[in-house]
Write a structure and sequence with these properties.
The protein is of the alpha/beta class and about 170 residues long. The chain has a single domain, classed as Metalloproteases ("zincins"), catalytic domain (Collagenase (Catalytic Domain)). About 45% of the residues lie in helices and about 15% in strands. It has helices spanning about 15-25, 40-50, 85-95, 120-130, 135-150, 160-170; strands at about 1-5, 30-40, 60-65, 110-115. It has a four-stranded mixed beta sheet with strand order 1-2-4-3, with helices on both faces. The longest helix has 16 residues, at about 135-150.
């Protein structure tokens, strides 16, 4: 699900929802749910400060679902982003259906977590990297989903980057 909670940048939700479905299919996550919240730079800066202790907005933050929190559908994420152990990554790769993840009541669907994206920051990065905003948003969705699966490019000696590059190529993203 894609929620647009910002008005700074005009965004077409349908193509992003279609891309998110494609990513889930490619990663074997058909029975999994993710919420992508498009937020303002101001809201993203607050999230970045609160959960990462860093000033200013960033382009994307991922909030993996934890058993003690219900899925978020209409408000900003409250679950803090966290590092992921190699053991958890292996487990996520091993179990395509992610059976240990929390299930949504009565749906049989696994809830992976939330991704916050700032389209205004994404637009700046897209311009800097010579990409279209639509492509940049797709890259950020893919990046966020990989974080929800337990990958962490800051600690995994390039494992996440290699996987992300393969998937970008498969999806036709630079």
């Amino acid at each position: 699900m894609i929620l647009n909670q910002q008005r700074e940048v005009r965004v077409a939700k349908r193509p992003l929802e279609s891309f998110l479905r494609r990513v889930k299919r490619e990663l074997g996550l058909k029975q999994s749910d993710v919420t992508v919240c498009l937020v303002s730079d101001r809201a993203m800066a607050k999230l970045n400060q609160k959960f990462r202790k860093k000033k200013g907005p960033t382009d994307v933050l991922s909030f993996p679902q934890e058993n003690s929190y219900p899925p978020l559908a209409t408000r900003l994420p409250r679950v803090p982003p966290r590092g992921h152990s190699p053991k958890r990554r292996r487990k996520a790769r091993k179990t395509a259906n992610l059976g240990k993840q929390p299930r949504l009541e009565n749906s049989g669907t696994t809830y992976l977590g939330d991704i916050a994206i700032s389209p205004a920051t994404a637009r700046r990065y897209a311009k800097k990297n010579g990409r279209l905003l639509a492509s940049e948003l797709r890259v950020l969705i893919l990046h966020g989903v990989l974080h929800l699966l337990g990958y962490d490019h800051e600690t995994d000696q390039g494992e996440m980057d290699r996987i992300e590059q393969k998937l970008r190529s498969r999806f036709g993203l630079k």
